UniProtKB/TrEMBL annotation:
Main location: plastid
Classification of source organism: Eukaryota, Viridiplantae, Streptophyta, Embryophyta, Tracheophyta
A Gene Ontology molecular function term of the record: NADPH binding
Domain Dihydrodipicolinate reductase C-terminal: 197-337
GO biological process, one term: lysine biosynthetic process via diaminopimelate
Keywords associated with the record: Amino-acid biosynthesis, Chloroplast, Diaminopimelate biosynthesis, Lysine biosynthesis, NAD, NADP, Oxidoreductase, Plastid, Transit peptide
Name this polypeptide is given: 4-hydroxy-tetrahydrodipicolinate reductase
Family named by the database record: Belongs to the DapB family.
Statement: the UniProt record of this protein carries the keyword Transit peptide: yes
């Protein structure tokens, strides 16, 4: 999408010049991917039925989806888990009132959209999940926990035959895929759930495959900004850089400018203050050897709704595949995009 760009405040521009050679003029934050070309510059055994006696999980939304099913979100104590749970309720899905998290919460439960979610320790998963699955036979699990729990959680879901969407990054991904394939369970696994970001990555991969070397000799500058708690380089940035390398650009990951300082994010990057604790701004600037041609690719995300909505589309996609008895069991977000009927 061609996008208009807006210059930052003059003081911010001056600060940017003092910081180094990357000269960005950023568009206002949006929830979509933009590509810009322009001139440089988650006790005793829990009885789910009893726990729900005083609740009405199906107290219904105004416009239920065509396919309604129970969804269990791990972990609702985290920001992404909470965002997905809220989006599920809004979409009319049946939110299972249990979530697994090592984080202690008052009274052992959290409230999401007027629904009480009982928080259980992850160590209880193997003893509690079977009863939950019995009460909710069509349940799909969504995992937004921690990287260290990815493989153990997937092994448990597979052992119990539970279909799941793995949105948590990290872990041993090769082992993760092998675990799912060996167990023959339905799953969507993707480190990136933002549909539009995935589409942008897919386009980049197609370009890199079909036009290798198209940017040979070009200089690449990369800047990515995330909340201060994210210490590593974005996996999305790594994927985009890999595409540029296939296109002929010489670039090392240690050249990525990681912005984690809130003040710098405000003045240099242009992140709205209310989104400092949750954003993903990526900027890629290409310059020809003689500096007469430049390209800029940019995708900025504020908040977590893009990932929550993408996760729901993945769960809805998986539910349809299960209901249809699809032979294929393991999917990624590209498969979800190709289905072409996202909300």
């Amino acid at each position: 999408m061609l996008a208009s760009t807006f210059a930052t405040h003059p003081a911010a521009a001056a600060a940017a010049r003092r910081r180094g050679p990357i000269r960005w003029r950023l568009p206002f934050c949006s929830q979509i991917v933009t590509v810009t070309l322009r001139r440089r510059f988650p006790m005793a055994r829990l009885s789910i039925t009893n726990a729900l006696a005083s609740q009405s999980l199906e107290s219904a939304p105004a416009a239920p989806p065509k396919h309604s099913f129970p969804i269990l979100v791990n972990s609702c104590t985290g920001k992404m888990g909470k965002a997905v749970a809220e989006a599920a309720v809004s979409a009319g899905l049946q939110l299972v009132p249990v979530s697994f998290s090592a984080i202690e919460v008052p009274d052992g439960k959290v409230e999401i959209c007027d629904r009480e979610i009982y928080i259980r320790d992850p160590s209880e998963g193997e003893s509690i999940l079977p009863s939950i699955a019995k009460d909710y036979p069509d349940m799909i699990v969504v995992d937004y926990t921690v990287p260290d729990a990815v493989n153990a959680n997937a092994e448990l879901y597979c052992k119990l035959g539970l279909p799941f969407v793995m949105g948590t990054t990290g872990g041993n991904r090769q082992l993760l895929h092998k675990t799912v394939e060996d167990a023959n369970v339905y799953a969507v696994i993707s480190p990136q759930m933002g549909k539009q970001v995935v589409a942008f990555l897919a386009a980049m991969e197609i370009m890199a495959e079909q036009f290798p070397g198209a940017f040979s000799g070009y200089k690449l500058e990369v800047m990515e900004s995330h909340q201060a708690t994210k210490l590593d380089i974005s996996g999305t940035a790594k994927a985009v850089i890999s595409c540029f390398q296939k296109l002929g650009v010489s670039f090392n990951l240690n050249e990525v400018k990681q912005v984690r300082d809130p003040q710098e994010q405000l003045t240099l990057v242009g992140v709205p203050e209310e989104h400092l604790s949750g954003h993903a701004f990526h900027m890629y600037h290409l310059t020809s050897p003689d500096e007469t041609v430049s390209f800029e690719f940019q995708h900025n995300v504020c908040g977590r709704s893009i990932y929550a909505e993408g996760t729901l589309d993945a769960a809805l996609f998986l539910h349809k595949k299960i209901q249809s008895g699809a032979n294929k069991k393991l999917y990624d977000m590209i498969d979800v995009l190709r289905e072409g009927n996202m909300r």
